[in-house]
Specification:
The complex is a heterodimer of chains A (about 350) and B (about 325).
Chain A: H1 3-6, H2 13-16, E1 26-37, E2 40-52, E3 57-61, H3 68-75, E4 84-93, E5 96-97, H4 103-109, E6 114-117, H5 131-142, H6 147-160, H7 166-169, H8 179-191, E7 197-201, H9 209-226, E8 229-234, H10 237-243, E9 246-251, E10 254-260, H11 261-266, H12 271-278, H13 319-323, E11 329-332, E12 335-337
Parallel strand pairs in A: 3-8, 3-9, 6-7, 7-8
Antiparallel strand pairs in A: 1-2, 1-4, 4-5, 9-10, 10-12, 11-12
Helix pairs in contact in A: 5-6, 5-8, 6-8, 8-9
Chain B: H1 8-12, H2 20-39, H3 41-58, H4 60-63, H5 95-131, H6 133-148, H7 151-162, H8 166-192, H9 196-203, H10 208-219, H11 221-244, H12 256-266, H13 273-300, H14 310-319, H15 323-331
The chains are: A alpha/beta (about 350), B mainly alpha (about 325).
Family (chain B): Belongs to the binding-protein-dependent transport system permease family.
Keywords (chain B): Cell membrane, Membrane, Transmembrane, Transmembrane helix, Transport
Membrane topology (chain B): Multi-pass membrane protein
Chain lengths: ~350, ~325
């Protein structure tokens, strides 16, 4: 059953071993995406840089509106334009700049080398097409898979995402699946061409808690099996702690702290990260301990405060924070933070 | 989850359990016909009229084998009798034969013009709605401009340029209804394109053409089908109107509108059947198609689900997460 898959290798060394000047699989530099509303310019992604190494899971966390999803969409140039526009930056993937590619070249990358999973499993499958048709679509678009092999490949994908009884489910319509099962189908579609990078945009937000864990385990297992990297976008720190290797914390379109999962959780160095961790319920806390919310509202991205965007909500803010924007600088090794203040626990 | 699809499935499902696909197939077609008869008896009646009209059109030469222009001067203006079921006209032509062949003409014009109009509506509506932006702006202003002119004026101008005739009528009516219908398609495309599966298809590397044909088009089929049925009746009426005015299909072709005008009006008092029969034929055909079209619209539109009990039912159904997809699935 495996051999149908093995016949269409996506990640054979010969095909993918392009020399990568920057080392990582994905290298994002100074990415800047804005949305224009009349005269107003909303900075959804405000000059961020990060990289993803092969086989690694990078989490991007932050509140709603912090630019997490927009970052992901910008990588594949899926920003609705107008009103959105990527105005600056480079996205190197396997040595090529995705932002310089023609629409045709980019189409070869989408779904083939970089695949995406969306937040809403209820609406991310086309209601009028069967699962078979939808699973086969990436293969029809990107691979010249013979028609007789497609069925075997679809069945294999459904088995990989652990959908029971795949033979009968293949011809079912999305409305006959539960949310968790639909998300499994989405994952199967994303993996159909064995991409090197999987972008999962809040893959479990719309699911029950019990199903969330299953889906995340599945994603982790499958990316490990295929040796793919993953960008996991979420606002759920619990998810991040368990499944991410490295974490980027985003606030108001910028990365405010970046480090390994251990560094971020054990030594958060940005007040915002600290606030996020403190506002997370913990079972091991004493019963009297209260959750500490971050006061205030996320800023209006069309009208950011001067200096550090977080300063109006920051308990540690000093004068410098109100005037100067802190750069993202190394704190220790690869642990980066964008804050003027030295926050200790 | 399959039990959710439709209550009708319970009655049509065979006792043994065949593969899911077959079961759904039964469920869709038979279940839909069953629901049509039970929930919308007038719609079913309309459907029956449509079928009769269609069969008459297709088998016109079998039903009335004599030519519709066979002249029999001795038997002119005969009232309905055993020999001439619906009487004869001023040239002694059998009215029954002419009505039957008129049905054929109506069916041909209606289907050809409506199909043309649907293709035009779909192409304009889908591209305009999907691409949005300046393209949408430009094409919608053209549509606006077109719709500013009263239909009749466009028709008269077009006929005077192209001349009367069957193909001219089909072309003009197709264009006329196609452009105004594009609005309906466009508005459904606007809502369909917001769905994440369209985004997902883009993220998967599907080409624009593929997205339009594989993802947008099947999801706007329900309004397109409804548009088709409602436009059928409108086209039949419009063709008759044109022929009545002498701008449509010229005599001696047996157009119902032409028969009403030329023979019917001139001999209304000597031979009233000449006006009554084509008038009734026209009315019944349009009535039947409209009834069927209305029922179809109600049943394909998930917001109009639930017989008569209106908004409450619709609201409840909308709140149930899977009901939208399930009704859409069973209806098509």
């Amino acid at each position: 059953m495996k051999d149908a898959v093995a016949n269409q290798p996506a990640n054979t060394p010969g095909e993918t071993m392009q020399k990568d000047p920057v080392g990582g699989l994905l290298q994002v530099e100074h990415l800047r995406t804005v949305f224009r509303q009349g005269r107003r310019e909303v900075k959804a992604v405000d000059g961020i840089s990060f990289s993803v190494n092969p086989g690694e899971t990078l989490a991007i966390v932050g509140e709603s509106g912090s630019g997490k999803s927009m970052t992901a969409m910008s990588l594949l140039r899926l920003i609705p334009s107008p009103p959105g526009e990527i105005i600056d930056g480079d996205v190197f993937f396997g040595g090529r700049n995705l932002l310089d590619m023609s629409e045709d070249e980019l189409r070869d990358v989408r779904g083939n080398e970089i695949a995406m999973i969306f937040q809403e499993p209820m609406t991310s499958l086309n209601p009028v097409l069967t699962v078979r048709q939808q699973l086969a679509e990436p293969m029809r678009v990107h691979r010249k898979v013979k028609e007789e092999d497609i069925e075997a490949r679809c069945l294999d994908l459904l088995r990989q995402v652990r959908i029971p009884d795949p033979e009968t489910r293949l011809d079912a319509y999305p409305h006959q699946f539960s949310g968790g099962m639909r998300q499994r189908v989405m994952i199967a579609m994303a993996l159909a061409c064995e991409p090197r990078l999987l972008i999962a945009d809040e893959p479990t937000t719309a699911l029950d808690v019990t199903v969330q864990a299953q889906i995340l385990e599945l994603l982790k297992d499958l990316t490990r099996q295929h040796g793919s990297s993953m960008i996991l976008i979420t606002h759920d720190l619990g998810v991040v702690a368990r499944y991410a290797d490295r974490i980027n914390v985003m606030y108001a379109g910028r990365i405010v702290e970046s480090g390994t999962a251990r560094e971020i959780f054990e030594q958060p160095r940005h007040p915002y990260t600290l606030g996020l961790i403190n506002s997370m319920p913990r079972l091991d806390a004493s019963e009297k301990a209260r959750l500490l919310p971050i006061e205030g509202q996320p800023p209006d991205l069309g009208n950011l405060p001067t200096g550090c965007a977080f300063h109006p909500r920051c308990p540690f803010a000093v004068d410098q924070c109100r005037q100067q924007d802190p750069p993202l600088e190394p704190y220790q090794g690869h642990h980066l933070k964008a804050c003027w203040v030295n926050v200790d626990d | 989850m399959t039990t959710e699809t439709a209550p009708a499935a319970l009655t049509t499902r065979p006792p043994t359990t065949p593969p899911l696909r077959e079961r759904l197939g039964d469920n869709k077609v038979l279940g839909f016909i069953g629901r049509l008869i039970v929930q919308r008896p007038m719609g079913a009646f309309g459907a029956a009229i449509c079928i009769v009209l269609l069969l008459t059109g297709v088998f016109a030469d079998v039903i009335a084998p004599e030519g519709y222009n066979a002249i029999n001067p001795i038997d002119r203006l005969k009232p309905p009798s055993a020999e001439y079921w619906l009487g004869t006209d001023q040239l002694g032509r059998d009215l029954f034969t002419r009505i039957v062949h008129g049905a054929q003409l109506s069916v041909i014009v209606a289907f050809a013009a409506t199909s043309l109009s649907i293709v035009i509506s779909a192409v304009i509506g889908i591209t305009s709605g999907y691409f949005g932006g300046r393209f949408d702006m430009a094409s919608q202003r053209v549509v606006d401009g077109w719709m500013c002119f009263p239909d009749l004026i466009i028709l008269i101008v077009a006929v005077s340029v192209l001349g009367p005739g069957t193909w001219q009528v089909i072309l003009i009516l197709g264009l006329l209804f196609g452009i105004s219908g594009s609005r309906i398609v466009r508005s459904s495309v606007l809502s369909v394109k917001q769905n994440i599966y369209i985004h997902a298809a883009q993220s998967m590397g599907a080409s624009t053409l593929r997205i339009l044909v594989m993802h947008i088009l099947p999801n706007v089929m329900a309004p397109i089908i409804v548009l088709f049925t409602t436009r059928l009746a409108a086209v039949i009426l419009a063709e008759s109107g044109l022929s009545f005015l002498g701008l449509g299909i010229p005599p001696p072709a047996p157009s119902w509108g032409g028969m009403l005008s030329l023979d019917g009006r001139s001999y209304m008092f000597q031979a009233p059947w000449l006006a009554i029969v084509p008038g009734v034929a026209l009315t019944v055909a349009v009535f039947g198609i409209n009834m069927f079209g209305d029922a179809l619209r109600d049943m394909l539109d998930p917001r109009m689900k639930g017989v008569g009990s209106g908004r409450y039912v619709a609201a409840v159904r909308r709140d149930r997460p899977s009901s939208r997809q399930s009704t859409g699935g069973t209806a098509q």
